[in-house]
Amino acid sequence: MILPILDVADVDASVTFYTKKLGFAHGFSMPGDNGKSSFAMVNLGPATIGLTLNPATENCGSGVETMIYLPDDTDLDQFYAQVQARGVAITSEIADQYWGDRTFSLRDPDNYSLTFCKTVKESSPEEIIAAQQNNA
Q: pLDDT, tens digit, for every residue of 29-80?
């Protein structure tokens, strides 16, 4: 397992976004000196993300992209519709990708790019390369 820990400007605001807008579960939070959270964990199925306070970091999510594969029993299209209904701006509409995944992307409040995925077709490396060349 890989557990990303993301620097965020406001842990509590990030927990609210991940739980209320994206449907993650709130694992736990650790209080900081000012009474607000300094660290938290959120999860969606097997995907777990740590959120750590770093208010001095400007545009902390720039250049970081995270792919989150949803649990097998989750319908990606239904999840996409729910996220949209909760007012989340989508940066890449839902679509089947040449490598065999169905995906859509958005940005969290700290500008981290999150791509939600489900594998819809198993492809060999050779098939993926051929499909990529056909899409070029």
A: 999 888 889 999 999 988 999 999 987 777 677 788 899 999 889 999 999 9
User: Cα-Cα-Cα-Cα dihedral of 123, 96, 101, 113, to 10°?
Assistant: 140
The contacts of residue 48 (CB under 8 Å, 6+ apart) are 1, 3, 27, 41, 42
Tokens matching residue 116: 């939600």
Long-range pairs for 35-40: beta carbons < 8 A, 24 or more residues apart: 36/10, 36/11, 36/12, 37/11, 37/12, 38/11, 39/11, 40/11, 40/12, 40/14, 40/15
Q: Which two tokens stand for residue 105?
A: 């992307």
Label residue 12 exposed, middle or buried (CB < 10 Å: 0-12, 13-18, 19+). middle
Q: Which helix (H) or strand (E) holds 47?
A: strand 47-53
Round to whole Å and give the CA distance between 8 and 29: 14
For residues 53 and 29, the answer to whether their CB atoms sit within 8 Å is no
In this structure, the chain runs to a length of: 136
Distance of CA 132 to the CA centre of its chain: 24
pTM: 0.88
